[in-house]
Amino acid sequence: MKSLLLVAHGSRRAASNDEVRALASHLEVYTNGAYGQVACAFLELAEPSIPDGLRQAIHSGSREVIVLPYFLSAGLHVVADIPSELDVVRAEYPDVRITLASYLGASAGIVELLAGLADQG
After folding, report:
1. 22 with 40: CB under 8 angstroms?
2. pLDDT single digits (tens) 23-46
3. Which CATH number is associated with domain 2-120?
4. Which pTM was predicted?
């Protein structure tokens, strides 16, 4: 089974974390069974942590987990912190493929999305 783990920063504001959880649920519906599981995890300030989110996917039967960073730029969290968190779980489960997808801000569609939002303003 292949899973998708949406990773966000995390917030002290519970409603912000709930937005990420809702987005993960919408992603699961949108991907229409392409992933056995779609969930979210947080770098800090909210649960589950990235390692715990990965472990939950693995314990649910995933042999491959795609980690999708919900970040706008390639800052320290994207280039160092998240990969470091993945390495912790890779060491625990060397037989599970854990792949880091590109972050949101690197998407070719981001310009169109932003222009659309501005047009709505």
Report:
1. no
2. 999 999 999 999 999 999 999 999
3. 3.40.50.1400
4. 0.96
Q: Render the burial of 80-106: b for 16+ CB within 10 Å, e for the rest.
A: ebbeebbeebeeebeebebebeebbee
Q: What is the pLDDT of residue 121?
A: 77
For 115-119, what is the mean pLDDT?
Answer: 95
